[in-house]
Amino acid sequence: MPLDPFFRERLRTHRRYLAKKAWQDLTARFRPEKPAAPASASASGKKALTPRERHRRAALNWDRMELRTAGTPGPDMETTDVTVPVDGHPDVRLRIYRPATAPIPAPACLVIGGGAFRIGGIDYPTADASCRRRADRSGVVLVAVGYSLAPEHRYPTQIEQAHAAWVWLHAHAAELGIDPDRIGLNGASAGGCLAASLTLLNRDRGTRQATLQILEVPVTDLTGRWIDLRATYALGIPALVALRELRSVARTYLGDRSRAHEQYASPMRAASHAGLPPAVVLTAEYDPLRRDGATYAKKLREAGVDASATRYLGVTHDTPIYVGALPAARRWEDEVVAALRRL
């Protein structure tokens, strides 16, 4: 199906960004190194931002703008922030969304957001709004995981934080008014990788397993084995540019890219997918990760796991953000809410 008209202008902007980034990366190799600026380089006396800090600030501003122009704010509801200790790794922040319609005890779902492992988080406006909307519509308590970002914190930090959050949620289910027999997992993009890996970790460590896993545009193999460059070709993005970006994500998260062959880094590569929870997998036609999601659902089915896979036509990787402007995004959210209600 042709690309939805909504995405055409965004595609032109994305092409310019990728081309500019590729050019900067190329020319940086031949540019002499500049001496480091002093800590108080700015005229105001404040410490100058690093390139990574500037990138994250720009991403947050972009996210705020997208919610304002094409998203839908979430309703007011009770939220609670908690910090959970993680053995050998930084503490992890959780944000609990309890809708007024939630029964006691209520079903719950641990939500792990995306951002290429290096941006995003529970404070991003679109992530917060999404949790509010989905919790309100489903009557399910959502628990969002604010995992640490790469490259400051690399694999397996994020998986261990997600596992600690999972164990904590079950240990405190009674006081939270949550039914421990009805707790699911939801992960999007990089968060889909972490959610799928968490189901493997739960199985292998004998931890209580999720009732259901909902994976949205997940990356499931960081070796790049299942990247579908036909999707980027259809968008007019050169394969070399797309591959460089995807490899950069894996390198930032893993440090040593050879670790992509480990099953908890790339859940697609697990020796067995038996004993994992039922799965709902959503992918987008114009997303190079579409085969990651579809093939992972196939592997689950081959292992005897109940798994469905839906590909949304004419749309891109970040479709779920645009519920205020895109009918396909609203239908996507309807499907996620329907899956949450299964809990």
Descriptive notes:
The chain has 343 residues and is α/β, with parallel strands linked by helices. The chain has ten helices and eight strands. An eight-stranded mixed β-sheet has the order 1-2-4-3-5-6-7-8, sandwiched between helices. Helix 3 links the parallel strand 3 and strand 4. The mean pLDDT is 93.
Which secondary structure elements does this structure contain, and how are they paired or packed?
Layout: H1 5-28, H2 51-70, E1 78-86, E2 89-98, E3 106-112, H3 125-138, E4 141-146, H4 157-171, H5 173-176, E5 178-188, H6 190-205, E6 213-216, H7 229-234, H8 239-254, E7 279-286, H9 290-302, E8 307-316, H10 327-341
Parallel strand pairs: 3-4, 3-5, 5-6, 6-7, 7-8
Antiparallel strand pairs: 1-2, 2-4
Radius of gyration: 20 Å
For this structure, the quaternary state is single chain
Number of helices: 10
Q: Beta-strand percentage?
A: 15-25%
Largest sheet, in brief, is: 8 strands, mixed
Structural class: alpha/beta
**Which sequence of SSEs, written as H and E, runs from N to C?**
HHEEEHEHHEHEHHEHEH
Helix percentage: 40-55%
Structural descriptors:
alpha/beta, 343 residues, 8-stranded mixed beta sheet
